[in-house]
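Worked example 2:
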Amino acid sequence: MAGDQGAARGPLIGVLALQGDVREHLAALAAAGAVPTTVRRPDELAAVDGLVIPGGESTTMSKLAVLFGMLEPLRTRVRAGMPVYGTCAGLILLAEKILDPRSGQETVGGIDMIVRRNAFGRQNESFEAAVDVVGVGPVHGVFIRAPWVESVGAEVEVLAEHGGHVVAVRQGNALATAFHPELTGDHRLHGFFTEMVRSAG
């Protein structure tokens, strides 16, 4: 019986818990059939099958990743093919280049893209809009100080655009959205990522 339960168990997916909307991602992953856990240390990162980098403040998250000794382990695992999903600030951290980085801001990399921080405006210009995501369908996008993707490399698949700007991409096992699906109660994107993790496993 225990073996049957183990076989049915979803993949262990971490949420980088240095800063940002961690709790909402944990709930969405659980609803999507994953086993969610928080990740703050390299040993916790080593134990997970995939990782979500949540929204928050990308500069703060970058500095905390360095402070907690997480930046290089993150880069190593992402380069090695660990499935990773970044939302909003997480999208910025997965970019190879930021057009307007803050002083000392670094990225994990993993997706061959150039991004612009706060591209859709500041906090008081946050908005919600329908976004049609390839492989998922129409979703309700919550954009909060959201970035957009300025350009992508040849290996990057554009999954969604809004207002003529790229807002969702995938490259191999790396997925990123400029908006926050964890705030909507619609768990299909987390389900999409969970299936990516299963396929990679």
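The radius of gyration is 16 Å. The CA atoms of residues 26 and 140 lie 19 Å apart.
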